[in-house]
What we know:
By secondary structure, this protein is α+β, with helices and mostly antiparallel strands. A hairpin with a 5-residue loop joins strand 3 and strand 4.
Amino acid sequence: xxxxxxxxxxxxxxxxxxxxxxxxxxxxxxxxxxxxxxxxxxxxxxxxxxxxxxxxxxxxxxxxxxxxxxxxxxxxxxxxxxxxxxxxxxxxxxxxxxxxxxxxxxxxxxxxxxxxxxxxxxxxxxxxxxxxxxxxxxxxxxxxxxxxxxxxxxxxxxxxxxxxxxxxxxxxxxxxxxxxxxxxxxxxxxxxxxxxxxxxxxxxxxxxxxxxxxxxxxxxxxxxxxxxxxxxxxxxxxxxxxxxxxxxxxxxxxxxxxxxxxxxxxxxxxxxxxxxxxxxxxxxxxxxxxxxxxxxxxxxxxxxxxxxxxxxxxxxxxxxxxxxxxxxxxxxxxxxxxxxxxxxxxxxxxxxxxxxxxxxxxxxxxx
Length: 367
């Protein structure tokens, strides 16, 4: 019995090493593809912008990679699991394992364990890193003059209305950094007491300080008057930095460890926290989602290659992953709007995928 256990442990370590090698290769290929596609697209859009350089654009693209990897990591798991299982199948190693009395669940254990660890690391390490690098990239892009042009999740600045003893005003910008405390390419409409427009203020940047918006390179436009330029302009505000952060910050730009405090703060300001709650449950469910991806990969990869079905297995696995992604995004949108409970939006795709994969594997193994 001990000899059998030793052989079984050796086989699991062997399969685990094969899988981690496949995962590493696919992970590096994904990073290279993300970098090339994103760098080429942004270089095409910003090559004519003053201050553009290939070095700055490459650095900004690298800063966005952790954020984008979080979206595609389930597909890396799916492809790596399929390539590992099909490779073992092609060399008849799984045939020998089955002939020795091992079931699919036993030689899937290393993959399930590895993907569970990868999911935990994605939540605890990759997600905070992606949130940090995304904010840093947005700040650098704003400083070099790219503004809101660089694609970044949740970087669209909403319009705000404030009322002070100086009158009411509507404030907006093309993009924001520091969770809304710094607005880029700002437009402010100031109103008279009778709600008619008093003037319009345009500025390169607006920074929220204690009681004031500090505008850089402001241009004041008043009806029938020439434009007045000011290097720096102070506009009084009663908006609090905490309120601005909760209004502007996207759930995708907040790290896993900050989400509970963001949810609490949003509720205290009377703001909807559905997006934050949905994101929190999605991150909690991520390790289970990666395990479900492994089951889907096994579902389509355990047919022997001598039957000539490798191509159909690959296409079937990719189709399953794509359908799961579409359903997950659709339900997430419902969760963020409050149409369905956030916990349901996060866990339903995981439960459905796990149920389908487990059912098919049980049918193949046990009939």
